[in-house]
């Protein structure tokens, strides 16, 4: 049987707060996805994006696009020169305009892993098996009500899906068996799992990098929310 344990290759020391900061910075809800061995564009294509529709966006630009009303004039978007017809056409053909997308997935890379961040949505969470085709994939999701869920895939198969601290809600292999992860109920479960990933993978995502422009894809219907 394949070894599903999360330990293994270390990419970079996690520092003091390599991933945990995401739970504070995305306090309205988030999904962080890590996919071993993929590039950012491969990750986006794996969750349904077309290469020609991938657009570089900063976090603030993506957030503005998500929260705007369809009736708002595009001149209200501070990041966009609304008189730049080519830029407007590109965003429109890629699904960012005129209606706000249901979710925007922004992707980057860190030492052997592709990562994706979604504000509010959770499209990537249902693609964890596909995202693990070259190794491991994790999706950590928290919605606006505080519900959290972790999905883990290994070599193209979904291994487990669980809410940290509530083992009776697990689908698949128990987290302790699959990953060696046990949450004892002190603190938020998603933060505990982010800390676990810091220790096990050594992954560190710089805040400044994730705020800057990253390859991004818009999706009209989220797989989960």
Topology:
Elements: H1 21-25, E1 30-36, H2 40-46, E2 55-57, H3 59-67, H4 85-93, E3 103-110, E4 113-119, H5 128-131, E5 136-142, E6 148-154, E7 157-163, E8 166-172, H6 175-179, H7 189-201, H8 207-211, E9 214-219
Task: Report what the structure shows.
The longest helix is centred in the last third of the chain and has 13 residues. The chain is built from eight helices and nine strands. Helices cover about 25% and strands about 25% of the residues. With about 220 residues, the protein is of the alpha+beta class.
Provide key terms for this protein.
8 helices, 225 residues, alpha+beta, 9 strands, 9-stranded antiparallel sheet, globular, disordered N terminus
Categorize the overall geometry: globular
List low-confidence stretches. Answer: 1-15
Rg result = 17 Å
Helicity level: 25-40%
Sheet-strand content, in percent, reads 25-35%
The number of E-state strands comes to 9
Q: Would you tell me the overall average pLDDT? A: 89
Strand order of the largest sheet: 2-9-3-4-1-5-6-7-8
Summarize the structure.
The chain has helices at residues 21-25, 40-46, 59-67, 85-93, 128-131, 175-179, 189-201, 207-211, and strands at residues 30-36, 55-57, 103-110, 113-119, 136-142, 148-154, 157-163, 166-172, 214-219.
